[in-house]
Specification:
With about 200 residues, this protein is α+β, with helices and mostly antiparallel strands. The chain contains three helices and eight strands. The longest helix has 8 residues. The two termini are about 25 Å apart.
Length: about 200
């Protein structure tokens, strides 16, 4: 994918990533997943963003340049992958929440469990990374063609299929309409309101 397409605010890029393909090649093989659900995080302007309080060693990748992968561990359990967007020096990233495995399903199922339904292999950000084989070692990876992790344009998604809603499971700015997903797609994760969520002002 042309990095120029990613050099925009996260909330603009997030819907454009629907239908795009994230692929990861490891010694075990390659898994490719078409993205069906994303969430935008707007850096220091966003109370739910890891970069809200400024740059740290953990979130440095979020500050650019665009076209890299920001990977973090959620609650000490699951890896989550974000595509860095926007202008170099200004934190902005899109969390990849779910997708449909289009290559390497046997390998994805080996990682996720033999009894996991196809639609659930990459449903939810932790499962998405597990199916792909993405770990903390991929933090900062450049998503250029030929790299171990790549982002490419997939089949165009009709605008009529894109839905917008509040973000999942965050306690701050949870009601910002920064979640984008494909209507009726079985791979999209279920919406869950954080028990610690409270109303907030914002986009």
């Amino acid at each position: 994918m042309n990095v120029d397409l990613l050099a925009h605010p996260a909330e603009d890029v997030a819907p454009r990533l629907l239908g795009s393909v994230l692929a990861c090649t490891t010694p075990e093989g390659t898994v490719s997943i078409a993205i069906t659900e994303t969430e935008a995080y707007s850096g220091t302007a966003d109370p739910a963003s890891h970069a809200y309080r400024g740059r740290t060693p953990r979130n440095a990748v979020m500050f650019g340049p665009a076209g890299h992968l920001y990977v973090y561990r959620s609650h000490g359990l699951h890896w989550c992958a974000n595509v860095v967007t926007g202008t170099d020096g200004i934190a902005s990233a899109v969390l990849i929440r779910a997708g449909r495995v289009i290559e390497g399903e046997d390998l994805a199922r080996k990682r996720r469990g033999e009894r996991v339904e196809s639609a659930r292999l990459a449903r939810g950000p932790g499962n998405f990374c597990q199916a792909l084989g993405i770990t903390g070692e991929h933090n900062g990876a450049n998503l250029l063609p030929g790299a171990s992790v790549t982002l490419s344009e997939g089949e165009p998604v009709p605008t009529a299929l894109i839905r917008i809603g509040p973000r999942v499971g965050v306690s701050k700015a949870h009601d910002w309409q920064h979640r984008f997903y494909l209507a009726g797609d079985p791979t999209v994760s279920a919406y869950r309101l954080s028990p610690r969520a409270r109303p907030s002002a914002g986009a």
